[in-house]
Structures are given as structure tokens and as C-alpha cells.
Amino acid sequence: MKIWLAGASGLVGSAFAAAAARRGHRVIGIVNGFTGEIIGLAEQRNLDLTDQAATNTAVLDAFPDAIVNAAAIAAPEACDADPVRSQAMNVELPANLARAAHHLSARFIHLSSEQVFDGARTEPYAITDPVSPLNLYGRQKVASEQAVQAAAAEFAVTIRAPLLMGNSLSGRRSTHERLFADWREGKTPRLFVDEFRQPCTAENLAEVMLELCERRDLRGLFHWAGDELVSRHELGRRVREHFKLTATEAPLGSITRATVGEAARKRQACLALALKPLIGKLKTRPQTLAEQLSELRVPGPCQAWYLRR
Ligand SMILES: NC(=O)c1ccc[n+]([C@@H]2O[C@H](COP(=O)([O-])OP(=O)(O)OC[C@H]3O[C@@H](n4cnc5c(N)ncnc54)[C@H](OP(=O)(O)O)[C@@H]3O)[C@@H](O)[C@H]2O)c1
């Protein structure tokens, strides 16, 4: 299958490129400013995906069997900092790619987020539950889901993903990589003891996306996540334990939502996702936290610190 992959240098995109190449697919990877090598790509192109005309030309020239959108402004703070650019990347781009997929009769895989929900309840959210985003990023993800569905209902799958673990190309992007960066700089990351997430790895999510490229019988909106709900603080503690770091080498501070005042209004307390119906339809399984931790590597920028600590 020929796959046109937007965001090939990102945490999820790079995992997807590697997984797709292992399964024999030809992947054309689109990046913005990234210039390094990305394993699994047959072709690598630099393109500003906020340029709609250039994006359309690139997709139509490639004439792919599937379009995978792993490009985004994926951090809520970055969306707040530049609402115009994040609207272009998080809403207008997926809408544009969905129209292209419809035009080409190509499969379209898009990524949304758990942050379409407000996290005010502890039971898992089902795909049928009403959305209730607390921040701009969540609102843009809701708008993207609706735009994709409107433009290419018969070709598109949107997956709401949770907080992601995994190994990024920069070594600075995922949950454990950010913790390592703080520890290397002698900082004490402060993690919420009362915010709960259901993380999965980018690599596991990539396997799901790949299966969905191949499974044209599955369409619409789905949830994917890991097998366990943990607090952010417990996640940090498990990362530290997995890499056999001591509390002195890798200190962790505790905070509660009550201590951050107004900022808590934009943060979700508990984001648990019900994985039905997707979980019953795929070969890929959700992973336990132990399985996820076993896949994590010491991030490149922190290897020297880790070895000499
Ligand atoms: N990370 C998470 O915890 C998480 C959780 C739930 C859902 N998601 C969703 O999963 C998807 C992938 O997220 P991620 O964490 O893999 O993102 P990421 O690591 O931040 O990667 C973003 C990708 O988008 C590209 N990009 C950004 N602006 C661009 C532009 N103007 N033109 C071309 N490319 C551009 C980047 O290219 P350069 O590297 O060249 O800049 C990079 O390849 C997103 O839809 C995100 O919302 C992520």
C-alpha cells in the first residue's frame, strides 16, 4: 500500500513509519523543518502543511492508497500560544486531507485526543458520550473530528488517543523523555497525584493505525488507550523504578489540582477511555503499563547523564 504520512517526524508519525515499513508498505513522509533520517520512509519531504494549496498538490501527486495524519500542534499550551496556527494545523489540515481522501477514494486515518472530554467523572468515556472540552486544544480536536466525518465519512477513521509514552526521534517529546530531561538538569518535576490518565505507547498506537489502514470495513470514531489508569505521579514513579533510578537521582514532587488554582479549570482530572468497540475488532492489544515501560529507551540526550550518574 502507498501511504502518505503527515507528521512523519513526530512521536506517533515516526513510530508509524517504522511499523508500516516492517509490514512492507511504501511510506511517503511529510515533515516541517525536520532534516534527520526517519526509519521506514521511502521518501521524505519538507512541506509546511498550513499551505493548503501546496499540501493538495503534494497529496494528489502522490496518489496514495491511504493518508495518515499524525501532524498537529499537539500541546495545549502551544495551541493557546498561537491559536491561528493551531487552528490551521489541528482543524483546517485534517479537513483538507479528508477532502483529498474522498477525492482519491483513499483511506484516511486521523488522530484526536482524550482531551475532547472534561475529565470530571471517573467512569471510562464511551465513544457515544457527549464531548465537553476544557481547553482550546480539545475544542480544535472536536472540530477536526466533525470536519473529517463531514468530508469523508466513508473513508475516514478518527482515533482518540490518550497521553502517550514512547521513544521520539528527538528524545524530548514523550512522557518519560520529559521526565528524564528534568532529572538530567537537576530539576524536580512536580506531578499531579490527583490527575489520572490511561497512557499507551506511540508504537502500540501506530500498530492500531496500521491495522485500520488495512481494515476498510472499519469507519468513524474510535477510542484507543492502554490497559491501566494511573495518576501522573504514579506514572513518574513507575518510570523511575523501571530505569532503576534512585529518588536522589530522579526526584519527584507531588502536587494536587487544588494547589494550581485557576489553571485547574483547563485540566482534566480523570481521562479514562472505554475501548469498545475497537478492542474487539483488532489483533493489536492494549498494553499493561509494565509492557509499555519495557519498550522505553533512555532518551538520546540523556544517555551520557544516565551512564555516569
Ligand atoms: N503526544 C501525546 O501525548 C498525544 C496524546 C493524544 C493525542 N495526540 C495526537 O496524536 C497526533 C500526533 O501527536 P505527536 O505527539 O506525535 O505530535 P508531535 O510529536 O508534536 O509531532 C508533530 C508533527 O507535526 C509536524 N508539524 C507541525 N507543524 C507542521 C507544519 N506547519 N507543517 C508540517 N508539519 C508540521 C511536525 O513536524 P516537524 O517535526 O518537522 O516540526 C511533527 O512531525 C496529534 O494529532 C496529537 O494531537 C498526541
Q: Uncertain segments of ≥5 residues (pLDDT<50)? A: none
Helical content (DSSP H or I, runs of 4+)? 25-40%
Let me know the largest β-sheet.
Answer: 7 strands, parallel
The coarse overall form would be globular
* Oligomeric description of these chains: single chain
* Distinct helical segment count: 10
Rg, nearest Å: 19 Å
The overall strand count is 14
User: What's the end-to-end separation, in Å?
Assistant: 46 Å
Strand content: 15-25%
Helix and strand pattern: EHEEHEHHEHEEHEEEHEEHEEHH
Write the layout of secondary structure elements.
Layout: E1 2-6, H1 11-22, E2 26-31, E3 43-46, H2 52-62, E4 66-69, H3 76-81, H4 83-104, E5 107-113, H5 136-152, E6 156-161, E7 164-165, H6 175-184, E8 190-192, E9 196-197, E10 200-201, H7 202-214, E11 220-223, E12 230-231, H8 232-242, E13 253-255, E14 270-271, H9 289-294, H10 303-308
Parallel strand pairs: 1-2, 1-4, 2-3, 4-5, 5-6, 6-11, 7-10, 8-13, 9-14
Antiparallel strand pairs: 9-12
The structure holds NADP nicotinamide-adenine-dinucleotide phosphate (NAP).
